[in-house]
Amino acid sequence: MARTINPRLNLSxxxxxxxxxxxxxxxxxxxxxCVVGLLxxxxxxxxxxxxxxxxxxxxxIVVYEWRSTMQHNLxxxxxxxxxxxxxxxxxxxxxxETWTLRNEGENTWSAFDxxxxxxxxxxxxxxxxxxxVLQFGETQAFEPFDRLGHVRxxxxxxxxxxxxxxxxxxxxxxxxLRTLNLRQEDLERRGxxxxxxxxxxxxxxxTWAAHDLTHLHQISRVMAHQYREAVGPWSAYLGVMxxxxxxxx
Length: 249
Ligand code: NI
What we know:
mainly alpha, binds nickel (II) ion, 249 residues, two-stranded antiparallel ribbon, 12 helices, Four Helix Bundle (Hemerythrin (Met), subunit A), 2 domains, 4 strands
């Protein structure tokens, strides 16, 4: 039977994760106490076996950080795309409208607008374009995306209805994507974007996932903006308050 050890003893032997700032054990004794205390609560009786697994996971994190980016992987894309509706629902459903209907000023979007935009993308962008690539290749350009299409999607609907609609459309699209059983040679097929020119199906699907993340990022920024004055001088320490702008829709 593996001997019980104190998890605190091995933390100092870990690779340079603590130097990367994620845990920051070094600088602040209060924070160090809190982090170690939290770990002690979470991991009350670590064994060598579990400790080794824990260290192995941290080593993997360090290795991932060394790599700049990952190649497109369809299963990883689907994993991300599957989670976005629930993430948005958890954050936004029944949240007071003062969070969800406010924007960053004239001609900017609220969280409500952004969900409408994501719905419009499910209807007109990702899978319709994937179908065009598979059917016509480069010979038929995609329809230009309507960046104001969300206005029609939102009319007369509550945020709860929009979140439900987004979840339903996303589930339908992912069911269709899985049914296609795309192979590597399919992912390398090329289509024609009306302004970017030739693009691959792989890049289109990777963009679908990154587009979710860009709008999660935007929602975070729009909502944080509402407390720009409320946080007072702390705004200088909040990265979300320093973000200069969002990519085009
Ligand atoms: Ni967008």
